[in-house]
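Hey, can you fold this one?
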Amino acid sequence: MFRDRLEAGELLGQALGFLKGRKDVVVLAIPRGGVPVGREVANAIGAPLDIVITRKMGAPGNPELAVGAVAEDGEMILEDEVVRMLAVPRDYLKREAARQAEEIKQREKKYRDGRPFPKLEGKTAVIVDDGIATGSTVRAAAESLRRRGAAAIIVAAPVAPPETVAELSETADKVVCLSTPAYFSAIGEFYEQFEQVEDDVVEKILAGDS
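Sure. Predicted structure:
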């Protein structure tokens, strides 16, 4: 159990101490909840902080159930087993992907405020979130960063189910996860304080004001 995202980020930063002092590392947090965690990680290892925006694609009639995710470059990652089980139509997937891609554009404009995406060629990209459930959004982020030229991908999170960590290990070069409970229903269950992170908090952190 973590007290809050600040403590989780501090502990995760300690676990990533092997990256401290390296000049080829960029921390990329997933908004919104991953940004406060990412700030602590970036401070701990002395790396720049930025964001990688991905959006979950919700199932028809059940937006909380992920059928996949969309990355900043518009590429779609599907949860094939869920798509098959629900017999999700291809047309629905295309519409949902387009809808989430538009949301990504709006958030990118809001959060980056004109700042360009960091250059990743030859860099080690550390993807940080406040917790990982199915891993769809993180896999979408990892694959998009590969396409941007990242030399290595490290996924870092305070908590995730063991099966998700195993799956992400096939996508990322390394996964650092502080807790892998067998029973996992919601990320917030592993925090004493897990209030929603508002847009203005994300903007302030990225601007260096908080």
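Helices lie at 5-15, 34-45, 80-86, 90-112, 136-147, 162-168, 199-207. Let me know if you want another pass with a different chain boundary.
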